[in-house]
Amino acid sequence: MSQTTTARRRQPRTPDAVPRPTREQRVARGRAARAEVPRSSHAEFSPGPDRPDPVAMLESQDRSRVPELLPIRYGRMAVSPFAYFRGAALPMASDLAGTPRSGLVVQACGDAHLSNFGLFASPERRLVFDINDFDETLPGPWEWDVKRLATSMEIAGRNNGYPAKERRDIVLATVAAYRGAMRDFAARTALDVWYARADVTQVESVVAERLRGHGRGRQRLARGVAKARARDNVGALGRFCGVRDGRPRILAEPPLIVPVADLAADPTQADAIERQLRDLVRAYRASLEPERRVLLDQYELVDMARKVVGVGSVGTRSWMLLFLGDHERDPLFLQAKEAGPSVLAEFAGPSEYDNAGQRVVVGQRLMQTVSDIFLGWMRVRGIDGQTRDFYLRQLRDGKGSLEVEAHVPKVMRVYGQMCGWTLARAHARSGDRIAIAAYLGAGRAFDEAIREFSERYADQNERDHQALLDAIGSGRIAAESGL
Predict the structure, then answer these.
(1) Buried (b) or exposed (e) across 138-168, using 16+ Cβ within 10 A?
(2) Last residue within a domain, chosen from 340, 372, 394
(3) CA–CA separation, 386 vs 424, rounded Å?
(4) How far is residue 416's CA from residue 437's CA, in Å, rounded to a whole number?
(5) pLDDT in tens, 140-172
(6) Are residues 100 and 213 in the same domain?
């Protein structure tokens, strides 16, 4: 395997030659956008007969994925309309491309559904609540993220059997929290916005206030926080590893976790895969800041395995890498995850970064207040001759997310408000928060429009989920359940 250039940009940025607009001009820009694209227009979703086949769009992603893992992907998506929605970022991006947009651009998540928010550990070892998936991040319309988040709330509510009124309240509360937070950030300094965060103490305080008289909801939050705290490198050692020849080794759980030694019947090919991964780590090391390299160099790579992750990501190449420090109770687990073009790229334009791993890492750093100290990227050529981009991060570093099926409407409403605030803060870091706030205004016109959109798109999502089930039933798509 040979390493190729990892940091080439398509179009290097140059300093603006024109003066920065004043606050008044930015407010005027937002209000002008409101006049051109009324907030009520965001309720629109009326796909025509020429709408692309969503199953065909999903199949188009299969060409670059590991073939034997694809039935797992479709088996997971077939479970429910909500599971389908999680894996169908590309069809929704295609649909969103035909909806109204204000012309205001942010660093978008690209897949801002409710399960992609959660807890993780900051470098200061405090749990924070933030977006935690950036595979699709790209500059794009801020409205697309809001619509995907709101729609995920509607679909999750249907999945849980909530009455229509409860679902409407949840979606409205989510969007209102986004709008209120953006207006608040518009009044703050850029540094205030950049430093704003929601650590677990603040989250617990907000939840306690809003869930008074709902002890079960607070108890579930406490259990979730405790579970997230336990999801560290030492916890991963106990979860994923056993002892072989006196040293920790990753245990096989096929097909979800397969050590490299078990991936190929031919030992020579397994050795080649291992060399490929070691080359990948060396290339990754070069993308780290010097002080992070010093830290990484205190660990030795001792084992590696392929690991199936997520729903929409199933089939992309994902590896778990076990490093050990001075002793066996000093593990470091890294995840190397393949990065391809964002699903937004066809509709919002290509990334300025030639390396898709760098696109993910830069986007994550732009949107998160704090990020994993081991975030890095690389480009490598595999044993099959194909060039692929990857990014690396810690596998389980205080990560925890909402168990969607476990919550009553009141808890989901509070969770939606937390997600709305978090998404606004992420957008405010890179976009024109003052113009967006002026566009949104103080009233509920935008909230109501997004509520209508979420209901219409949830109906479409149910039809698309059924189309997938039909494709599985006809034999067009192979699916494996229970994995």
Answers:
(1) bbbbbbbbbbbbbbbbbbbbbbbebeeebbb
(2) 394
(3) 38
(4) 19
(5) 999 999 999 999 999 999 999 999 999 999 999
(6) yes
